[in-house]
Amino acid sequence: MEVQHKREREQQVVACMIELYCRKQHHTKGELCPDCAALLEYARARSARCPFMEHKTFCSQCPVHCYKPEMREKIRQVMRFSGPRMLLVHPGLALRHMAETLRQKLQKETQQ
Ligand SMILES: [Zn+2]
């Protein structure tokens, strides 16, 4: 897949997840709270500059090497919360994301 397209798709999924998380956890409507807005901004910037984009399969790998600890913890919470719920909201995106995440998890487990 073309790298630019991959980047855009990744950013789209991350934005959806943060939006969902903020709406449900922080009870915002339409707009993100300042914390989540900052997280989204950070995630976008990381994704835009990610040197692994060409090789990595998806964003779930990314926080492992390039997020600073504070943001990594936040994005983990977002993914843990929104990951399963994305199935209901954006089934196509969510399924692809889950398939990738699962594949990576299995790969990691077999390597250990
Ligand atoms: Zn929020």
Please indicate the percent range of residues in DSSP E strands (runs of 2 or more).
under 5%
Mean pLDDT: 80
Task: Give the helices and strands as they follow along the chain.
Answer: HHHHH
- Biggest beta-sheet profile: none
Q: Radius of gyration, Cα only, in angstroms?
A: 14 Å
Helix content: over 70%
Number of helices: 5
Bound molecules: zinc ion
Give start-end ranges of low-pLDDT stretches: none
Oligomer: single chain
Task: Tell me the total number of β-strands.
Answer: 0
Backbone shape: globular
Distance between the termini: 29 Å
Instruction: Decide which structural class fits the backbone.
Output: mainly alpha
Whole-number count of domains: 1
Key features of this structure:
112 residues, globular
